[in-house]
Amino acid sequence: MIDYLIxxxxxxxxxxxxxxxxxxxxGQAGMLNFGLPGFFGIGAYAAxxxxxxxxxxxxxxxxxxxxxxxxxALVSFxxxxxxxxxxxxxxxAFAEVVRLVLMNETWLTGGTNGIRDIPRPLLDVIGSNHxxxxxxxxxxxxVAIVYGLLELVLxxxxxxxxxxxxxxxxxxxxxxxxxQVLRIKAxxxxxxxxxxxxxxxxxxxxxIDPGQFAGSVMIYALMAVIIGGKGSNRGLLAGAxxxxxxxxxxxxxxxxxxxxxxxxAASLRLMLIGGGLLLTLILRPQGLVxxxxxxxxxxxxxxxxxxxxxxxxxx
Amino acid sequence: xxxxxxxxxxxGLLIALPAIAxxxxxxxxxxxxxxxGAMITCGAYLAYWxxxxxxxxxxxxxxxxxxxxxxxxxxxxxxxYRKIEDGGHVTMLVASMGVAFVLENAVRLVYGADVRxxxxxxxxxxxxxxxxxxxxxxxxxVTASLALGAVNLLLKCxxxxxxxxxxxxxxxxxxxxxxxxxxxIDATWAVSGSLTAMAxxxxxxxxxxxxxxxxxxxxxxxxxxxxGGIGKPLGAFAGALIIGLAEETSALLVSTTYRQGISFVALILVLLLRPQGLFxxxxxxx
Lengths: 315, 286
Known about the structure:
The structure holds 2 protein chains of 2 kinds. By secondary structure, chain A is mainly α. Helices cover 75% and strands 0% of the residues of chain A. Chain A is built from 16 helices and no strands. The longest helix of chain A has 27 residues, at 2-28. Chain A has helices spanning 2-28, 36-52, 57-79, 84-104, 106-109, 123-126, 131-155, 157-167, 169-174, 179-205, 215-228, 233-249, 253-256, 262-283, 295-300, 307-314. By secondary structure, chain B is an all-alpha fold. Chain B is globular, with a radius of gyration of 18 Å. In chain B, strands 1-2 form a two-stranded antiparallel sheet. In chain B, a hairpin with a 2-residue loop joins strand 1 and strand 2. In chain B, 70% of the residues lie in helices and 2% in strands. Chain A binds chain B through residues 32, 34, 78-79, 81-82, 84-86, 88-90, 92-94, 96-97, 100, 103-104, 215-216, 218-219, 222, 226, 263-264, 267-268, 270-271, 273-275, 277-278, 281-282, 285, 311, 314-315, and chain B through 31-32, 34, 80, 83-84, 86-87, 89-91, 93-95, 97-102, 105-106, 108-109, 112-113, 215, 218-219, 222-223, 226, 255, 257-258, 260-261, 263-264, 267-268, 271-272, 275.
């Protein structure tokens, strides 16, 4: 039971990191990155390949973060002028290309067989008995640190400028902010966090294959962000936990409906997740927690109501 | 080379069906429908079900699968998209991703992840001057051309087709002129559903039926629609031919596994250099 809890919490931690990243890129900057699984894969494969070649875990993680951030910079630099839906199309296509490379460049990635026996960092120091627990502790610490850093960044003038650019890029540009640079920075910050999540994923599972970096990751991250409330990192923590509860809760479906095979039960679970996403969009599109705003502004400036209130007016 | 060109035209015709559906949907509903790949898969499985479980020949299975998918598409419009219209086009786009996920896993729930084949007789390919064309490909050419002709007629010569184009052009003006938006949207989904079901069946005839079959065409479809100026169905047809030719002829240079990569490059180039599409006029973004 303890092992099960540890496994789930580790999974939640990695998922939360992905959610944070999507929250910066989409929630704060308004750049819908549908290619998240592709970036996640780049991070995981970078960490896995490097540590297979004898690089120690920390350097491999740092390299994975750097590589994912660099690729994010490149992708956002190329696509910066695109509208939100065109960006979504481009990033999906990008993730597909990443998946094709992972599947076909067998000399580097092991193809569809993936990479096995990825060495875990500090395994000889901690010992295999308590490794999972220690890994979880490390993941939780990382989540806390990333959360703190993101909150700092987003409450700084940078974060406000970013949200301003999301609401109206022309006004923001007129006020002297370089909107494109702001957006590229946000995309890179998100990319770095995705790379970190990828590295943790690789080290935790010690086995990766291209199938792990498919659309379902995107749906989980989207759902965590939407349930939590787009733009709010605090809400995201709740959102990620709820997605995990839904995922794990439905794991027992098989026992209630015995006619289902294990593969069918898995499909049914994923169907329920997708259905949950649609239901959230229909019933509570604003999510649980609204995004951070300066409290003075909320009372003093009725001319710029948060998006949430606007929805309530029209409903 | 000539064989590559022929294959390119055929695969272009294949991509044209969903690309037109996507473009039409984008024009009328104003959002990029990411579930188009899953709809293709669904259409193929519907045909598979009618063809193998009910034992009907493909000629009979085809119209029923098209009607079935059209009904499913309209049901999704009423159950999902219509309820979140106010959230804007990005919310609908996210929802379409959710719809894709549900559809794809519904297929997996019923049929599993196994690769399946339609029950069609095997025939020798036709040879002519060293060019090879198998019966499935011939069928693709005939069916796709008929479907494209029908869509063109529908858009140009019928009232509902004119209504679709009017709404795509200017929704408010269309509504003022007494065009029912709801009815036109339903009709658009019916057309999209039929076209994608048709594409699903043709892809299945040429290859296999499996849960990711539609997803694997997603990039090419989007590239074709964007190339033709997204929102313009006839442009999407031209875009699909270009993408088909580009993918097949590039197979002479790069490995065929990267044909989606060619589409990706084309997609990015067009979005960057001519976001209005190859044939569109530049417009000030409103």
